Amino acid sequence: MSGVEAVKKALESVILNPKYADCLAVLKAARNGAVYGAKVRFPHALVMIVLFRSGTIREKISLVLRATKTHAQNLARYATVYKLTMLALKHMGSSPGKEGPYDTFFAGLMGGYLVFGRRSKKGHVSSVSKQIVVFVFARVCLSLAQLSVMPQAGIIKSHKLSRRIEHDAWPVFAALSWGSVMWLFRWYPDTVQTGLRSSMDYIYVQSDHWDSLRNFLIFNK
User: Fold this and answer.
1) Name one GO cellular component term (predicted).
2) How far is Cα 170 from Cα 166, in angstroms, rounded to an integer?
């Protein structure tokens, strides 16, 4: 057996040992968070920065890599804090070794505060952190809305009324969301997230200006 194979076998004996499973799950979660964050953020940042940011190619590449790094680090840190908190609560609860009914909430609370709730030394919150939190918040609202009309769990106990609300809720929600964002963009644009504001400016404001066929069809003025 070669030295490389011996080391590989020794490492596998460690990672497959149930005694270390909880601690290794923390490392695996951090790894998965970093990989997922990079895979999701890189193409998004590439498109948004190339299309809507000014500057040289080098500056744009730097911004793309910085956004990707920030997203990957945030998700890796959050996964680490969440898993470590879950592990601690598992052994501190009234039934050691078992997960409590609210452990996930408190672990998420801890991770959200330490990773996404903190400000920089200059008092700013990064745009990447804001985007992630707003994304999660929107999903939470949708999930809670669905939960609220489930007869077995929500405040609506009638199956017929529940189905009716579920059928009509989405078009109303979509209309209110778009009506609200267009009003905010028109009268209070500074309150709209930077990336969204840039794309809306490109579509709805810059479309009002042209002085030739070239910048009517191909480029903006």
Assistant:
1) peroxisomal membrane
2) 7
pLDDT tens-digit map of 116-132 = 998 877 888 888 888 89
Which pLDDT tens digit goes with each residue over 160-219? 888 888 888 889 999 999 999 999 999 999 999 887 898 899 889 988 888 888 888 887
- For 2, 142, 163, 165, 191, the CA distances from 173, given in Å and listed in that order, are 63, 10, 16, 11, 20
Dihedral sign for Cα atoms in the order 191, 193, 195, 196: negative
Owner of token pair 């695996």: 28
- Domain range annotation of the chain: 1-125
Give the residue carrying structure tokens 């590449």: 61
CB contact at 8 A, 75 and 37: yes
Q: Which two tokens stand for residue 111?
A: 């991770």
- pLDDT of the residue at 1: 57
Calpha distance 118→112 (Å, rounded):
9
Quote the pLDDT of residue 121: 76
